């Protein structure tokens, strides 16, 4: 609000009524009494008052914009000044310390000058000799043009500096939530850098890992992050507050968390520490696209058997819901075919009945002790074969990754040399970034299965021999993973599990049992070579190692 000053006990008719406009670009200038450029509020106020006295006027109002740029006229106190002068007609003079406090744009200066002329208000500068004479008008035009050039040149130099900083992996401006802008002293010099925010970064990682499951909506994820204590960063006058859904949406698409810096549409490898890896980021993007296509729902009803159960009568997928009754909620599964053309007559299956039936089905897949040696040999043979293939594929992808990064660097060099326009740079960069993600995803997958064969084999055998026991003590997430490892589909009806489509390991167990527990020479075929491949079950195993199961 403008500061209305008390008029002196002098007849208003003897003095010209003057309003003062003061502006500082930063909040720091608003607080300082001394500024090396004389732009602090006290300095501006003093010189403006002297100018008013010289012109035979009296100050009737003061308007102050703190932390505002003169590149635009959309400044709150500036607009209030124009409105009140127009409505009250209580001003003859408008005094500023310098014209660059008023406007740094020649067009704005002309347009606002016309408005003041219509209101019969004279603009005066305390530092520049401008008036309504031909010489004064010429000087004002020259000063306005110089101020515009200075502003544009300053902005251009700032952009050059920030572009160079981004090119070197630095972060121009404020880092996103999960990181902190810090200042360090290095050999006597102040260096601005980025550090991981140890309070917020774990929430960012959790948000990515949780949303990647596909079972959470943005709304639900935002509520849970706020419940866990996640808050925005307080900056200046903006206080820390709970997250909004828009905040979370921006977090989930920000490649800064992968280790990249994006400035003016161009992406650069950053020097900051990544919080997530490429495979996880890509999974999150896939979930976002899937939810966007389907129209994101809140997923109110979650159950670890969702996606694994199919109708034992018509084969259609079973869905999960909860009904409200007098004694509380009644969770149940139902065949989606009931609401489709097939008109399946499968009754609703209570959730607890489905859970008990699946547990009993796990108990049936415990292998006969007599086939364990042959099973172990066949699993080892499969693991070794897969390992050979993945070592070869990993080397190929490493070479591909090196070539792609070289292409990306050459592309940036061409852009900085003005050899290609920015739109072509973005198109080529997007393509290379996608290929780099694909290569990194394949390498990451291969790294998981390149562990010691003995360690992996021991863990798989533990699952096979104690699957039902592990399933019984696992939490919902662990049970979901175990179901996906052992079965592709579980067919269920009101009487229990009526059939299943087994996973690769269960098929191997059944085949060995059907062959009559023969010796390895008869049970294990010669290792395929060339273009032949074995089933890819170790990839499914990678996400369900017993050391990573979530126990109750």
Overview of the structural elements:
This protein has 552 residues and is of the alpha/beta class. It folds into three domains: 3-154, Rossmann fold; 198-294, Putative Large Serine Recombinase, Chain B, Domain 2 (Hect, E3 ligase catalytic domain fold, Alpha-Beta Complex); 369-548, no CATH class. Helices cover 48% and strands 16% of the residues. It has helices at residues 27-31, 41-54, 76-88, 99-102, 106-118, 134-167, 201-211, 218-227, 245-252, 278-294, 351-363, 372-416, 422-449, 453-473, 476-486, 504-514, 520-523, 537-541; strands at residues 3-4, 16-24, 57-66, 93-96, 122-125, 179-186, 189-196, 260-263, 266-269, 309-311, 318-325, 328-335, 349-350, 487-493, 496-502. The strands form five sheets. The chain has a five-stranded mixed β-sheet with strand order 1-3-2-4-5, with helices on both faces. Strand 11 (318-325) and strand 12 (328-335) form a beta hairpin. Helix 12 crosses helix 14 (453-473). The longest helix is centred in the last third of the chain and has 45 residues, at 372-416.
């Amino acid at each position: 609000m403008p500061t209305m000053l008390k008029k002196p006990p002098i007849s208003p008719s003897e003095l010209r009524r003057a309003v003062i406009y003061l502006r500082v670009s930063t909040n720091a200038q608003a607080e300082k009494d001394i500024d090396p450029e004389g732009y602090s509020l006290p300095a501006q106020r003093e010189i403006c008052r002297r100018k008013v006295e010289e012109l035979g006027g009296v100050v009737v109002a003061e308007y102050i914009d703190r932390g505002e740029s003169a590149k635009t006229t959309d400044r709150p106190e500036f607009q209030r000044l124009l409105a009140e002068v127009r409505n009250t007609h209580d001003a003859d003079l408008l005094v500023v310390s310098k014209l660059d406090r008023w406007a740094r744009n020649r067009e704005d200066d002309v347009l606002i000058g016309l408005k003041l002329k219509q209101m019969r208000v004279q603009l005066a500068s305390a530092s520049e000799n401008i008036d309504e004479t031909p010489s004064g008008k010429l000087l004002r035009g020259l000063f306005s043009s110089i101020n515009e050039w200075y502003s544009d040149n300053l902005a251009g130099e700032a952009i050059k500096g920030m572009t160079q900083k981004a090119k070197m992996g630095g972060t121009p401006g404020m880092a996103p939530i999960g990181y902190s802008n810090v200042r360090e002293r290095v050999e006597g010099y102040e260096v601005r850098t980025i550090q991981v925010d140890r309070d917020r970064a774990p929430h960012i990682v959790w948000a990515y890992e949780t949303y990647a499951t596909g079972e959470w909506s943005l709304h639900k994820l935002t509520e849970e992050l706020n419940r866990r204590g996640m808050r925005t960063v307080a900056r200046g006058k903006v206080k820390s507050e709970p997250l909004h859904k828009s905040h979370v949406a921006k977090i989930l698409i920000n490649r800064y968390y992968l280790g990249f810096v994006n400035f003016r549409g161009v992406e650069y490898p950053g020097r900051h520490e990544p919080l997530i890896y490429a495979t996880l980021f890509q999974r999150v993007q896939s979930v976002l696209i899937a939810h966007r296509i389907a129209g994101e729902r809140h997923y109110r009803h979650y159950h670890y058997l969702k996606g694994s159960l199919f109708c034992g009568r018509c084969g259609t997928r079973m869905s999960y819901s909860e009904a409200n009754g007098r004694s509380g909620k009644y969770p149940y599964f139902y065949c989606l075919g009931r609401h489709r053309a097939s008109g399946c007559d499968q009754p609703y299956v209570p959730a607890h009945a489905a859970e008990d039936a699946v547990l009993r089905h796990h108990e049936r897949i415990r292998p006969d002790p007599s086939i364990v040696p042959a099973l172990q040999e066949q699993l080892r043979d499969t693991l070794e074969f897969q390992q050979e293939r993945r070592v070869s594929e990993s080397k190929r992808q490493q070479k591909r990754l090196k070539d792609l990064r070289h292409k990306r660097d050459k592309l940036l060099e061409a852009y900085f040399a003005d050899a290609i326009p920015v739109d072509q740079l973005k198109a080529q960069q997007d393509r290379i970034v996608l290929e780099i993600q694909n290569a990194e995803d394949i390498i990451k997958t291969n790294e998981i299965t390149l562990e010691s064969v003995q360690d992996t084999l021991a863990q798989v055998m533990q699952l096979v021999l104690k699957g039902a026991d592990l399933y019984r003590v696992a939490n919902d997430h662990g049970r979901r993973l175990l179901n996906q490892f052992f079965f592709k589909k579980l067919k269920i009806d009101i009487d229990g599990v009526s059939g299943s489509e087994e996973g690769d390991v269960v098929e191997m167990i059944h085949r060995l049992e059907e062959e009559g527990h023969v010796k390895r020479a008869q049970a294990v075929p010669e290792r395929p070579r060339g273009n032949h491949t074995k089933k890819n079950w170790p990839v499914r195993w990678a996400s369900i190692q017993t050391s990573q199961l979530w126990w109750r």
